[in-house]
Amino acid sequence: MDPVALIVLVVFVVLVGLVLLAGLILVVALARRKPVKPPPAPSISAAPKVSPIPCAPSPSRPSPPPLTSHTPYLLAEGGSLHGQPLRIQPAPGGLTLGRGPDNDVVLDSMMASRHHAQVMPEGAQYVLYDRDSTNGTYVNDQRVYRHTLAPGDRVQIGDCVFTFVAPGQPVPKPSAPFASRDLAQQYHVRTTFDKEYELLELLGCGGMSVVYKAQDTAGQIVAIKILDVTDEWVRTKFIQEGKIGEVLRGHPRICSVLELRRSSDGRLYLVEEYIEGVSLRKRIGAPMSPDQVTSVTGQVCEALHFAHQHNIVHRDIKPENIMIGSDGMVKVTDFGIAKLTSSVTITKDRIVGTPEYISPEQARGDEQIKPASDIYSLGVVLYEMLTGRLPFDRPRSGEEREAWYTLIRQHIKEAPTPPSRLTPSVTPHLERVVLRALEKESSKRFATAAEMAQAIGYDSSTVRRAVPEPALQAMQLVVVEGTAAGKTMPLAETDVEIGRTQLDPTNLMISRRHAILSRRGQAWWLKDISRNGTWVNGQRVYDQVPLDGDALIEIGGAKLRLMPQPGEA
């Protein structure tokens, strides 16, 4: 054999032998290796058992890394996640909860909004924000819109309950629920309130306010509505919704909000027009002629038509909020603060709102409540005027909480009994009107309150059209800081959206649709629809907030200033 070929053969054999030997060594090493045990799961105290709650983690998001003693989380109490921790990510992520599939935690609850709430790390604190949900977010049985979480706080969204566990801290007992004070015992009739009003008569009191008939120093008779809560969510809403009342001031079918004030002892109160008359609640049950029913319904439609033209939805139309004067004239009340009480939330021990009159979209917790919702609620009132009964009523036997759920499901799914089956004197014409107003799909109801008034036979010439307003000052948004600095965006009559395209296409902290500006009366309002938040004058907002003439808006590092267009200053 050629010597060179022999050398090549020997080298090849040696190499093959070395490869086989290395493989044998690897097999032996793997066989002797002990299996590695997974790290132990974090120690979490078992939560008390409650009724199952349908909530689940978002399937679209990857599983977070294991918890440590330095990880904050919400502990789910019930349902498929019972006892499981829901990790709060570092800023800017946090933890989002809602019915929409793009949330970190998806809540399969008809009481949850699509984007209901978010927990955000802010410095060393963790802040819970309600994202302008329909049915509210509660902490320790108190409704909140922004709340700095403390260890052991119990967070409730619809029928889902969570406990906040802070980094490295044990879970304490939850704080006691808020107890309302009895203002009716504090302010007596024939006493002076805020140095300007003499309280003449107690007109009513509820869970949030006390209402008095009063007389000011000039002799004018007014109604004084004193806020009876210290909760920051309610106080903020009271101020914002009081401004909405100013937009509607002066319409003959709407009770006017004259002024929003703060008393010398720090209480917020509204000065309202005093109405000499009774609520529709006191008339229902007594015989009402078709002409009376038509007149009351038509006048309420006038009020709603005007409000809807100003992008304002009442959300709490019911007999208690419809006043009938001694001359038969109707005025709708509580436009200014309806949103405070219209949310229908079932907590563990109380009902918030008016479930008998809510629309299906309110019952579902839809985020966008439109004028059609008021038309449905008025349909419920019309049904009650015609028959003396509600189209849907809660069962009077069994557990109260389940009875309210049954009522809400009826609004969403069940058809009402035709009024003529209960009251044969109801004409086919009126029956068609009420059943159309009570359609489950909002698109099948009357397109406007004016159309409903005309359909019922109310003289269309008396349906008040929108009062011509002075021209709105031409305003614009000016980007004062960020990639688009110097850019101007004129504001028109229609809604204006702000997002990534307008401000910085490369900035992922800005959502594609981040915020919406809408005109309400003579003011501009901003609504945040983003994940990462919008700040107005240094305060984060989730709700619709009114903008001052020089408001500073911060979105993902960009800063915008609201200011008059050139020549309008």
Comma- or semicolon-separated keywords:
33 strands; elongated; six-stranded mixed beta sheet; 569 residues; six-stranded antiparallel beta sheet
Q: Would you give an account of this structure?
A:
The protein is built from twelve helices and 33 strands. The strands form seven sheets. A six-stranded mixed sheet has the order 1-5-4-6-7-10, with no helix packed on it. Helix content is 24%, strand content 25%. About 9% of the residues have low confidence. A hairpin with a 2-residue loop joins strand 8 and strand 9. It is of the alpha+beta class and 569 residues long.
What percent of residues adopt helix (DSSP H or I)? 10-25%
* Average residue-wise pLDDT: 79
Q: Give the uncertain stretches in residue-range form.
A: 34-54, 58-62, 172-181, 347-352, 463-470
Radius of gyration: 30 Å
User: Which structural class do the helices and strands define?
Assistant: alpha+beta
Give the strand order of the largest sheet, numbering strands 1, 2, ... along the chain: 1-5-4-6-7-10
- The termini sit apart by 105 Å
- Count of alpha and pi helical runs: 12
- Please report the total strand number as a whole number: 33
Q: How much beta, percentage-wise?
A: 25-35%
Global morphology: elongated
* Sheet having the most strands: 6 strands, mixed
